Structure formats: C-alpha cells, structure tokens
C-alpha cells in the first residue's frame, strides 16, 4: 500500500502540536463579554491551526473581582460562561484550558477547566494561594488540598475535580496535559514537577501576574527554566490590562516554551486580544526524556487520574503548513552574531584545554600536524598554538608540515606556508609525489587511474610522514578532520582518519568556517588574520585529483553533497533520533525555495539518501576513531555519546526515504 502525504506527514506521526497561549480582552465581572472575547480568541487560534489553547486565570470573570467572588450571581454566571465557551470550543474544534471560580462543598476554588469536544472534562483547583503584597486570594478561595469531593456536578454530569488530573490525547499519545495555576509555578516545588514525572509532556498555566519593574524578565526565565527542568512544553497565559488597575497593572504576557527554549510570546500592554502561537515538538521531548537518566530515575510518587480526550484536527496533513517554531538551516551555528562569537569562544577553549591536558598527561612538548591550507587543518593548528600558549610551551615545538601532492593548488600551498610562518611554528614542506609514485609502482597501480586507491594512497602517505616525524621529535600527531567527515566517513581509514588526539572531532563542517572567521576577528591579528580570511574563502576540497590547467578538478560537496544539508541531517538524526520523514519535513521547511538557500524536494531527498547510506556504512571508522574533545550535544565517539555496531543495516531508514519519495511522487532518482 502506497503511503499518502497525509499519513506520513500528519501532526500525530511527526509529533507536532500547534498550541496557543492567549491573553483575551477582558472586563472585570462582565462574564458575557469575557466569554465572547474568549470564543473570538479561540477562533483566531484555530484559524492558525492550533489544536490546544490556554487562557488566563479566572479569565471568565476577570481575576480582580475581589469580594465579588462571594456573589452568587457572579459564580452562577461563570458556570454559564464556561458552558458557552466549552460548546463554542467544540464547534471551533479546539481544546482549551479556561479559568473561573468554582463553588464546591461550601468553599470556592480558583480553578482551571479543561474543555474538549464541546464538554468540560475536568476542573483543576489552584494549589498555592498567594496572600502577600498585593495578593489576597485566601480571602476568597480555598487551596486544592482542602477539597473533599473528587467531582463537580455540571449539567447533571459528574466532572472530575482535583489537582491530580492528567489529560491524555487518544489520537496523539505523546500529548499528555498537566495544569497548574499562576502561583503554583512560583512555589518551591511546583505541581508541574510531579505531573511531568507522571508523564505530562505539555504543561498549561492560566495566570494573572501583575507587572512591576523587571518582573517580565523573571517570569520569562521562570517559564523557560521550568520547561527545561520538566523536559516539557509549557504554555503560560497571563491576564491582560483590562483587569482592574486599583493598585496594580496586568500586561497580557503569554508565553510558549519548550525544554528551555522560548518559542513565542505576546507583546505586552495591549487592550485587545493577544495570542502567542507555536508548534511544540513532542517527539523531541519524548526523545530527551528517554535520553535523560535523571528524568527516568525520578519516577512518579504522586497518583494521578488520567482523563482521555481527542485533538481531532491535529491529525491532518501539515507538510505544507508553515511551522511556527525556528528551524535554523545550521543548527550547530547560532544565528545571532554575539551568541555565535560566544559559542566559538567556548569551543576554542574546550578544544585547546583538551589538547593541553593530553600534552600534560603524556609529558610531550612537541607535536606534529599536517597543514593543507584548508579549513580543518587551519582550525586544528590554531587550537594547537593556543594549547601550547596555555601551557607556556614555545610554539617551535609544533612541527607543522605541508605535504603538497598531485592536486595541491598554489593558493592552499601558499596559505599553509603563510599561516605557519605567521604563527611562529616549526614549518616544514615534504612533497609526496615521489613517495606515492614509488608506492604505485610497488603495488602495480596505474597512476593514470584516478580511483580510490589513487586518492587513499596520498592520504596514507601523509599520515605516515606525520607519524614518523612525531617519532623523530618525541611527540604525537594532532588530528585535523571534523565531525561532519566522521559522520559521512569522508576520511581515509588509517590515513587522515588517524592521529593521537583529534581536536576537531566534535566540530561540524558548517561551524569550522565560523570558528576560523572568529579566530581572525578576535584571537589573532595582522598577517595571521589576513591569511585566515583567505583560507575561509577557499573551496572545500581534499585536493587528491590532479589539477587541470592549474585549477581544481575536485570539490568535496559536488561528490558527497552540501555540508549545510548533511550537518542538518546529522543534527536531527543523532541529537533527536528522528525518522527520515521527520528529518525531510524539517529540512523542507528550513531549505524550501522561500528560505534564500533553496533546495527542492528532490535535492533534499537525494542527499538525505546519501547521508543514511554513508552514515551506516562508515561506522567502522568511528568505532576506531582516536580520542578527541566533545564540544556540543552531538558527538560520535564510541566511548561517549554514540554506540553503534559497525554492521548495523540502513534498510529501515532507506525504506522510510523511499516512502517519502513515493508519497510525494518524486522521480526514482531522487
């Protein structure tokens, strides 16, 4: 049976849930107006594809009603307003959390009602009632622990009531909702912690948090950090400026966060309705919970009642829907210049400190390193120079060797020399033409046959030179290859694949160029900086095939594909364990024709297929890779983050690529 796009790319199969945190227009104690405003806001959210929304604390009545919460008229109107909004939400096709006061057993509770499919499925009372500064909630409400009943009778039906409720989407099992209210989040032990341990992946907080200087930043950090601590999505909806301003002002601050990342927030201090919309990635949350042993060990000490519901239209095809979350083309590289500089600074420190420790441990005061004039060897040489500086060792102890061969250009050769001289290292040039030519004669290889033997012989000759010179000077070899080359196996086994310490092992190709640029800007100056900029502008090539009229005949990305795509694939394959269809879906949004770096579906799928084939086929090289420092969340060392048998089959992943190709009716060669 041929898979349809609607099957492969449904929100449920991709784990994507579009949500809204809403700050509707509000009038204090005007339930009819508030109900209409809430319904209108839910309609806006649904029109943008949202399946789930949260509205502010006591939003049906307004939070600042004061002693009016003791008025039967207001409490009865709130019940009527809830029915009205619940019925409308069912008609609109959205699930929502709404705030209102609920009388029960002689008490009044500050509650969040969860509505779905036109019905109220549960009431969650507030656990922590603030009674300090401008807050007087204990004057009107009782905390959750004072409740004696577990149900509220609404329209003749018993509706679950309590702080022990979780809501599970039957049509998206990874969507498990937990609800806490405003001050609950500020408590020493927020209720959302036990909810997350019990399985809640999306936490919703209807809130009424007044503004004061600096509070918005604190609130933003609090929501973001709680989402990270719980490895969850977190929706926070604060009351708007329509609340009473007797003593304080409310801003309508609504936020959507996911595992420490702010995805969306409203602009504050607007009297009209504000909506923050984002796509939560539930598969990402599930994967990180699987990965995090601390989370798994926490267990659940609280018993929760589980209430099923359905998201309904969240199952529809979302392939062509614009995502409401950032999908950067280069997930390893921060887009913000300042953040990128800090990123590079930290990585450079990790790399150089790791190498310095290895020098201290071995007692070595000398190393050898191959310098080609390309990006990877340039970064490795800069790291090595910094490690020697860190230890107070003279840079003359770095024997940097450029080894021109059949494909070496004058540009890379001259840049290698200029860089070595500018850094003050011991510079040597050892051409490999004659040695490799003799090797071809020894093994009976035709030098005009430019195959894998022709290329690998050069790489292994260079490694032999580095190893033997290291023996001569009593040092060790510093490796230069990067993380992307390890992922694709774009290295000669026991050639450039091998060294005694691999300083670039954790740095992907898309980041290497930025690292070199950053070094030119901040770490080095003068002639060194000039040379670094020219190296950064050079094409990526192994320079193994002979030149033609002095020009390159080999560029890496023409052979194996664009590194910007492969690094994207690598990030989502290793970091989050996504299936090929999910990786393709995200790549399509990141690199589509409107992105400025347009790759059509065929191109993305073509190189995605290459990525999986190479990644699986080349694991044997990673299984034997040398030591090197981990610098980011993706690492491929068999002693650290990535343990994979060298004989693992790629068939399962390739079939998923084929399913995407078939579903989109792309040509067989895609």
Q: Any idea what the radius of gyration is? A: 30 Å
Give the integer mean of the pLDDT values: 94
Sheet-strand content, in percent, reads 15-25%
User: Strand tally, please?
Assistant: 20
Largest sheet: 7 strands, mixed
Distance between the termini: 20 Å
Task: Provide a count of the helices.
Answer: 23
CATH architect. name of the largest domain: 4-Layer Sandwich
The CATH topology of the largest domain, please? Answer: Nitrilase/N-carbamoyl-D-aminoacid amidohydrolase
Helix content: 40-55%
CATH secondary-structure class of the largest domain: Alpha Beta
Q: What overall form do the CA principal axes indicate?
A: elongated
- Whole-number tally of structural domains: 2
- What ranges have pLDDT less than 50 throughout 5 or more consecutive residues? none
Give the neighbour order of strands across the main sheet.
13-12-11-10-9-8-15
CATH-level-4 superfamily name of the largest domain = Carbon-nitrogen hydrolase
Return the structural class: alpha/beta
Task: Describe this protein's structure.
This protein is α/β, with parallel strands linked by helices and 670 residues long. The protein folds into 2 domains: 10-315, 4-Layer Sandwich (Nitrilase/N-carbamoyl-D-aminoacid amidohydrolase), CATH 3.60.110; 331-462 and 481-488 and 505-555, HUPs (Rossmann fold). Helices cover 41% and strands 16% of the residues. It is built from 23 helices and 20 strands. Strands 13-12-11-10-9-8-15 form a 7-stranded mixed beta sheet. It has a 6-stranded mixed beta sheet with strand order 5-4-3-2-1-14. It has a 5-stranded parallel beta sheet with strand order 18-17-16-19-20, sandwiched between helices. Helix 3 links the parallel strand 1 and strand 2. It is elongated, with a radius of gyration of 30 Å. The model has no long low-confidence stretch (mean pLDDT 94).
């Amino acid at each position: 049976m041929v898979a349809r796009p609607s099957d492969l790319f449904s929100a449920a199969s991709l784990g994507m849930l579009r949500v809204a945190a809403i700050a509707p227009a509000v009038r204090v104690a005007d339930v009819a107006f508030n109900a209409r405003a809430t319904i209108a806001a839910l309609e806006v959210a649904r029109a943008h594809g949202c399946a789930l929304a949260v509205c502010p604390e006591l939003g049906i009545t307004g939070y600042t009603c004061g002693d009016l919460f003791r008025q039967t008229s207001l409490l009865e109107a709130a019940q009527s307003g809830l029915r009205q909004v619940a019925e409308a939400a069912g008609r609109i096709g959205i699930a929502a959390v709404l705030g209102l006061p609920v009388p029960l057993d002689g008490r009044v509770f500050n509650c969040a009602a969860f509505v779905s499919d036109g019905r109220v499925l549960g009431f969650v009372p507030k656990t922590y009632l603030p009674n300090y500064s401008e807050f007087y909630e204990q004057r009107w409400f009782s905390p959750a622990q004072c409740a004696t009943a577990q149900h509220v009778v609404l329209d003749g039906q018993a509706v679950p009531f309590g702080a022990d409720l979780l809501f599970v989407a039957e049509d998206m099992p990874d969507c498990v909702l937990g609800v806490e209210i405003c001050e609950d989040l500020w408590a020493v032990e927020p209720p959302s912690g036990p909810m997350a341990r019990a399985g809640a992946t999306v936490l919703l907080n209807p809130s009424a948090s007044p503004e004061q200087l600096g509070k918005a930043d604190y609130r933003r950090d609090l929501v973001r950090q709680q989402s990270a601590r719980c490895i969850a999505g977190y929706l926070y909806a604060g009351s708007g400026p329509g609340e009473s301003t007797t003593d304080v002002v409310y801003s309508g601050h609504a936020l959507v966060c996911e595992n420490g990342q702010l995805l969306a927030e409203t602009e504050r201090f607007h009297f009209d309705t504000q909506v923050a919309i984002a796509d939560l990635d539930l598969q990402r949350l599930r994967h990180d919970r699987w990965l995090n042993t601390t989370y798994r060990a926490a267990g659940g000490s609280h018993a929760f009642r589980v209430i099923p519901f359905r998201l309904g239209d969240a199952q529809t095809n979302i392939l062509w829907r614009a995502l409401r979350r950032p999908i950067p083309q280069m997930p390893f590289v921060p887009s913000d210049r300042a953040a990128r500089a800090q990123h590079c600074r930290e990585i450079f420190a990790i790399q150089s400190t790791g190498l310095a420790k290895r020098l201290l441990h071995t007692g070595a005061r000398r190393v050898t390193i191959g310098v080609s004039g390309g990006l990877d060897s340039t970064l490795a040489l800069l790291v090595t120079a910094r490690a020697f500086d860190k230890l107070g060792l003279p840079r003359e102890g770095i024997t940097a060797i450029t080894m021109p061969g059949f494909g070496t250009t004058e540009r890379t050769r001259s840049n290698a020399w200029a860089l070595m001289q500018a850094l003050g290292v011991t510079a040597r040039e050892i051409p490999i033409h004659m040695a490799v030519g003799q090797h071809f004669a020894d093994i009976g290889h035709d030098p005009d046959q430019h195959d894998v033997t022709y290329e690998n012989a050069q790489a292994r000759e260079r490694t032999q030179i580095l190893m033997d010179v290291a023996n001569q000077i009593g040092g060790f070899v510093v490796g230069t290859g990067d993380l992307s080359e390890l992922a694709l196996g774009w290295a000669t086994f026991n050639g450039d694949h091998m060294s005694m310490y691999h300083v670039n092992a954790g740095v992907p190709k898309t980041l290497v160029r930025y690292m070199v640029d950053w070094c030119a800007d901040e770490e080095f100056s003068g002639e060194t900086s000039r040379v670094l900029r020219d190296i950064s502008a050079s094409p990526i090539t192994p320079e193994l095939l002979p030149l033609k009229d002095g020009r390159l005949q080999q560029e890496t990305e023409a052979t194996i594909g664009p590194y910007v795509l492969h690094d994207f694939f690598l990030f989502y394959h290793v970091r989050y364990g996504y299936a090929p269809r999910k990786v393709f879906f995200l790549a399509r949004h990141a690199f589509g024709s409107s992105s400025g770096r347009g790759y059509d579906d065929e191109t993305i799928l073509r190189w995605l297929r290459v990525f999986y084939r190479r990644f699986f086929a080349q694991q044997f090289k990673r299984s034997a890779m040398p030591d090197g420092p981990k610098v980011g969340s993706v690492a491929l060392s068999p002693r650290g983050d990535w343990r994979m048998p060298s004989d693992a089959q790629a068939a399962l992943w390739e079939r998923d690529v084929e399913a995407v190709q078939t579903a989109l009716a792309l040509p067989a060669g895609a």
